[in-house]
Write a structure and sequence with these properties.
- The protein is mainly β and 113 residues long.
- It is 6% helix and 51% strand.
- Strand 8 and strand 9 form a beta hairpin.
- The relative contact order is 0.37.
């Protein structure tokens, strides 16, 4: 079995960083649907501005809101406006084709990559 990239939201912008929230990352549900990431799913987040990487779980945000909110302790690892990559993985014994999307500065879907 191998852990393979299954889903990726590329160059999303952090819209909120809430240290007092219990944890997680809130992601616009329209983006979650495009890459088939579920609420509660573990994701790896990489900040392109400062190099920080962290794991957390997903909370579904309102569709079309553009929200990318980093919550809890991980909020110390990002700043609002930072560009991040959000990645989901799958443990499988077969090759898979990841769903990868690019978003614009408002976290709206641009295209499949």
């Amino acid at each position: 079995m191998r852990s393979l990239l299954r889903a990726k939201i590329h160059r999303a912008k952090v819209t909120e960083a809430d240290l007092d929230y219990v944890g997680s990352i809130t992601i616009d549900s329209a983006l979650l649907e495009k890459v088939d990431i579920w609420p509660g799913e573990r994701v790896l987040v990489s900040d392109l501005n400062n190099g920080n990487r962290f794991e957390t779980y997903v909370i579904e945000g309102s569709a079309g809101s553009g929200i990318i909110g980093v919550n809890g302790a991980a909020a110390r690892l990002v700043d609002v406006g930072d560009e991040i990559i959000i990645m989901g993985f799958e443990i499988t014994d077969h090759p898979i084709e990841p769903k990868v999307i690019l978003v614009d500065d408002d976290n709206r879907f641009v295209r499949q990559l």
